[in-house]
Design a protein that fits this description.
Layout lengths: L16 E3 L5 E3 L5 E5 L3 E2 L3 E9 L6 E4 L2 E3 L2 E4 L6 E9 L23 E7 L3 H13 L20 E6 L10 E4 L2 E3 L2 E4 L10 E7 L9 E7 L6 E7 L5 E2 L4
Parallel strand pairs: 3-6
Antiparallel strand pairs: 1-5, 2-3, 4-18, 5-9, 6-7, 8-9, 10-16, 11-15, 11-17, 12-13, 12-16, 14-15
Length: about 240
Amino acid sequence: QPQPQPQQEAGQQLFPLVFNVSTEWVNVPVNGSVVMSGVTGQAGQKLVLTVIVDSPYCPGSLVLNGREVASSCVPCTQWLQLYCVSATVAFAGEVVSWSQEVTADSPPPTFTNGWFNSSMVISDAVKQQHTQVDLDYPIPWEAVDLDATWLAPGRVLAYFYLEQPKLQGAPPRAWLNNTELPLQMAFNGRSHKAADTFLGWYADLSLLEVRTLHQLSVLIPPDQAGFHGVFYHNTVLALSSQLL
Protein backbone atom coordinates (compact mmCIF):
# COMPACT_ATOMS: atom_id res chain seq x y z
CA GLN A 1 0.00 0.00 0.00
CA PRO A 2 1.43 3.41 -0.98
CA GLN A 3 2.62 5.47 1.96
CA PRO A 4 1.66 9.18 2.33
CA GLN A 5 4.34 11.59 1.21
CA PRO A 6 5.20 14.82 3.08
CA GLN A 7 4.05 17.96 1.31
CA GLN A 8 6.72 20.51 0.46
CA GLU A 9 6.17 24.00 -0.91
CA ALA A 10 8.36 25.26 -3.74
CA GLY A 11 11.59 26.59 -2.30
CA GLN A 12 10.81 25.21 1.18
CA GLN A 13 13.32 22.91 2.86
CA LEU A 14 11.77 20.43 5.27
CA PHE A 15 14.98 18.78 6.43
CA PRO A 16 17.03 18.65 8.56
CA LEU A 17 14.57 18.69 11.46
CA VAL A 18 15.93 19.14 14.99
CA PHE A 19 14.15 18.03 18.17
CA ASN A 20 14.62 18.93 21.87
CA VAL A 21 17.22 21.68 21.37
CA SER A 22 17.46 24.95 19.48
CA THR A 23 20.22 25.60 16.97
CA GLU A 24 21.37 28.40 14.69
CA TRP A 25 22.79 26.29 11.87
CA VAL A 26 22.73 22.66 10.70
CA ASN A 27 24.74 21.20 7.86
CA VAL A 28 25.27 17.70 6.45
CA PRO A 29 28.49 17.98 4.43
CA VAL A 30 29.76 15.40 1.99
CA ASN A 31 31.98 13.76 4.61
CA GLY A 32 28.89 12.31 6.26
CA SER A 33 28.80 14.29 9.50
CA VAL A 34 25.90 16.28 10.90
CA VAL A 35 27.39 19.60 12.01
CA MET A 36 25.35 21.92 14.26
CA SER A 37 26.35 25.29 15.71
CA GLY A 38 24.65 27.58 18.21
CA VAL A 39 23.09 24.58 19.94
CA THR A 40 21.33 25.43 23.22
CA GLY A 41 19.24 23.35 25.60
CA GLN A 42 17.77 23.61 29.07
CA ALA A 43 20.49 24.30 31.61
CA GLY A 44 21.20 21.47 34.05
CA GLN A 45 19.33 18.88 32.02
CA LYS A 46 20.24 15.69 30.17
CA LEU A 47 18.19 14.99 27.06
CA VAL A 48 18.08 13.08 23.81
CA LEU A 49 18.75 15.27 20.80
CA THR A 50 17.44 13.98 17.46
CA VAL A 51 18.11 15.27 13.96
CA ILE A 52 16.20 13.97 10.93
CA VAL A 53 18.25 14.34 7.75
CA ASP A 54 17.31 13.78 4.13
CA SER A 55 20.32 11.85 2.89
CA PRO A 56 21.13 8.81 0.74
CA TYR A 57 23.43 7.53 3.51
CA CYS A 58 23.46 7.40 7.28
CA PRO A 59 25.66 10.21 8.66
CA GLY A 60 28.59 8.78 10.55
CA SER A 61 29.05 11.41 13.27
CA LEU A 62 27.44 14.35 15.03
CA VAL A 63 29.29 17.58 15.83
CA LEU A 64 27.71 20.05 18.28
CA ASN A 65 29.22 23.50 18.82
CA GLY A 66 32.53 22.27 17.42
CA ARG A 67 32.62 19.09 19.51
CA GLU A 68 31.97 15.55 18.26
CA VAL A 69 29.59 13.60 20.49
CA ALA A 70 28.66 9.93 20.58
CA SER A 71 25.60 9.32 18.42
CA SER A 72 23.52 6.67 16.72
CA CYS A 73 21.87 6.63 13.31
CA VAL A 74 18.88 4.60 12.13
CA PRO A 75 16.45 4.88 9.20
CA CYS A 76 13.42 6.96 10.15
CA THR A 77 11.00 5.53 7.60
CA GLN A 78 10.72 2.79 5.04
CA TRP A 79 9.63 5.02 2.19
CA LEU A 80 12.05 7.96 2.13
CA GLN A 81 15.79 8.43 2.48
CA LEU A 82 15.42 9.86 5.98
CA TYR A 83 17.77 9.05 8.83
CA CYS A 84 17.41 9.82 12.53
CA VAL A 85 20.66 10.82 14.19
CA SER A 86 20.37 10.82 18.00
CA ALA A 87 22.62 11.60 20.93
CA THR A 88 22.22 11.94 24.68
CA VAL A 89 23.63 15.32 25.72
CA ALA A 90 23.82 17.25 28.98
CA PHE A 91 23.96 21.02 29.36
CA ALA A 92 25.84 22.88 32.08
CA GLY A 93 24.17 25.10 34.66
CA GLU A 94 21.33 24.86 37.15
CA VAL A 95 17.74 24.09 36.24
CA VAL A 96 15.40 27.07 36.14
CA SER A 97 12.06 26.61 34.39
CA TRP A 98 8.85 28.51 33.82
CA SER A 99 6.90 28.73 37.10
CA GLN A 100 9.28 26.27 38.71
CA GLU A 101 8.11 24.51 41.86
CA VAL A 102 9.68 26.00 44.98
CA THR A 103 9.44 22.99 47.27
CA ALA A 104 11.15 19.61 47.08
CA ASP A 105 7.77 17.85 47.29
CA SER A 106 4.32 18.37 45.78
CA PRO A 107 0.95 17.97 47.51
CA PRO A 108 -0.53 14.55 46.72
CA PRO A 109 -3.43 14.50 44.22
CA THR A 110 -5.81 13.68 47.06
CA PHE A 111 -4.78 16.75 49.09
CA THR A 112 -7.75 18.97 49.99
CA ASN A 113 -6.85 21.08 53.01
CA GLY A 114 -4.76 20.97 56.15
CA TRP A 115 -0.99 20.84 56.52
CA PHE A 116 1.56 20.55 53.73
CA ASN A 117 5.19 20.28 54.85
CA SER A 118 8.27 20.31 52.68
CA SER A 119 11.73 21.80 52.26
CA MET A 120 13.15 24.30 49.78
CA VAL A 121 16.44 25.77 48.56
CA ILE A 122 16.73 28.93 46.48
CA SER A 123 19.45 28.23 43.93
CA ASP A 124 22.04 30.73 42.75
CA ALA A 125 20.54 30.48 39.26
CA VAL A 126 17.06 31.52 40.43
CA LYS A 127 18.46 34.44 42.43
CA GLN A 128 20.75 35.58 39.62
CA GLN A 129 17.91 35.46 37.09
CA HIS A 130 15.85 37.87 39.20
CA THR A 131 18.84 40.10 39.89
CA GLN A 132 19.54 40.34 36.17
CA VAL A 133 15.97 41.47 35.50
CA ASP A 134 16.49 44.44 37.82
CA LEU A 135 19.75 45.29 36.06
CA ASP A 136 18.16 45.04 32.61
CA TYR A 137 15.02 47.00 33.58
CA PRO A 138 15.90 49.47 36.39
CA ILE A 139 12.32 50.69 36.89
CA PRO A 140 11.54 52.59 40.13
CA TRP A 141 8.60 50.43 41.21
CA GLU A 142 6.31 51.82 43.91
CA ALA A 143 4.48 50.09 46.75
CA VAL A 144 1.19 50.33 44.83
CA ASP A 145 2.72 48.15 42.08
CA LEU A 146 3.63 45.23 44.28
CA ASP A 147 0.18 43.60 44.56
CA ALA A 148 0.49 42.76 40.86
CA THR A 149 3.00 39.91 40.98
CA TRP A 150 4.03 40.35 37.36
CA LEU A 151 5.28 43.85 38.15
CA ALA A 152 8.65 44.35 39.88
CA PRO A 153 9.75 40.98 38.42
CA GLY A 154 13.12 41.17 40.15
CA ARG A 155 11.46 39.93 43.33
CA VAL A 156 11.83 36.24 44.21
CA LEU A 157 8.16 35.44 44.78
CA ALA A 158 6.58 32.18 45.92
CA TYR A 159 2.99 31.82 44.70
CA PHE A 160 0.63 29.51 46.62
CA TYR A 161 -1.40 27.95 43.84
CA LEU A 162 -5.09 27.42 44.64
CA GLU A 163 -7.56 26.49 41.90
CA GLN A 164 -10.18 29.02 43.01
CA PRO A 165 -8.79 31.30 45.72
CA LYS A 166 -11.50 33.04 47.71
CA LEU A 167 -10.91 36.63 48.67
CA GLN A 168 -13.54 36.52 51.42
CA GLY A 169 -12.47 33.13 52.79
CA ALA A 170 -9.92 32.40 55.47
CA PRO A 171 -6.45 32.81 53.92
CA PRO A 172 -3.77 30.15 53.89
CA ARG A 173 -0.89 30.51 56.33
CA ALA A 174 2.75 29.53 56.01
CA TRP A 175 5.76 29.08 58.28
CA LEU A 176 9.38 29.24 57.16
CA ASN A 177 11.85 27.64 59.55
CA ASN A 178 9.16 27.74 62.28
CA THR A 179 8.56 31.50 61.82
CA GLU A 180 5.28 32.60 60.27
CA LEU A 181 5.78 33.91 56.76
CA PRO A 182 3.77 36.99 55.73
CA LEU A 183 1.51 36.22 52.76
CA GLN A 184 0.37 39.04 50.48
CA MET A 185 -2.76 39.11 48.33
CA ALA A 186 -2.08 39.03 44.60
CA PHE A 187 -4.18 40.76 41.93
CA ASN A 188 -3.84 40.89 38.17
CA GLY A 189 -3.56 44.68 38.22
CA ARG A 190 -2.44 47.43 40.57
CA SER A 191 -5.50 49.63 40.65
CA HIS A 192 -8.61 47.41 40.68
CA LYS A 193 -8.48 45.18 43.77
CA ALA A 194 -11.64 43.08 43.86
CA ALA A 195 -12.82 39.49 43.83
CA ASP A 196 -12.81 39.36 40.02
CA THR A 197 -9.11 40.34 39.86
CA PHE A 198 -7.94 38.34 42.88
CA LEU A 199 -5.33 35.67 42.10
CA GLY A 200 -4.44 34.27 45.51
CA TRP A 201 -1.48 34.75 47.83
CA TYR A 202 2.26 35.09 47.48
CA ALA A 203 5.31 35.50 49.70
CA ASP A 204 8.37 37.60 48.92
CA LEU A 205 11.51 35.46 49.41
CA SER A 206 13.96 38.01 48.00
CA LEU A 207 15.90 38.36 51.25
CA LEU A 208 16.08 34.63 51.93
CA GLU A 209 19.56 33.10 51.99
CA VAL A 210 20.42 31.11 48.86
CA ARG A 211 21.94 27.60 48.78
CA THR A 212 20.47 26.97 52.23
CA LEU A 213 17.91 24.34 53.17
CA HIS A 214 14.73 25.89 54.55
CA GLN A 215 11.68 24.17 56.01
CA LEU A 216 8.29 25.33 54.74
CA SER A 217 4.93 24.46 56.31
CA VAL A 218 1.64 25.53 54.72
CA LEU A 219 -1.79 25.41 56.32
CA ILE A 220 -4.73 25.43 53.89
CA PRO A 221 -8.10 26.16 55.54
CA PRO A 222 -11.19 24.13 54.53
CA ASP A 223 -12.70 26.92 52.40
CA GLN A 224 -9.56 27.26 50.23
CA ALA A 225 -9.53 23.89 48.48
CA GLY A 226 -7.59 22.92 45.37
CA PHE A 227 -4.04 23.56 46.60
CA HIS A 228 -1.43 22.33 44.10
CA GLY A 229 1.81 23.59 45.60
CA VAL A 230 4.15 26.56 45.81
CA PHE A 231 5.74 27.94 42.64
CA TYR A 232 8.13 30.69 41.70
CA HIS A 233 6.58 33.69 40.00
CA ASN A 234 8.38 35.29 37.03
CA THR A 235 11.05 32.62 36.50
CA VAL A 236 11.80 31.79 32.88
CA LEU A 237 13.49 28.84 31.21
CA ALA A 238 17.29 28.98 31.62
CA LEU A 239 19.23 27.85 28.56
CA SER A 240 22.86 26.85 28.12
CA SER A 241 25.13 26.25 25.15
CA GLN A 242 27.86 24.56 27.23
CA LEU A 243 27.92 20.81 26.81
CA LEU A 244 29.14 18.59 29.64
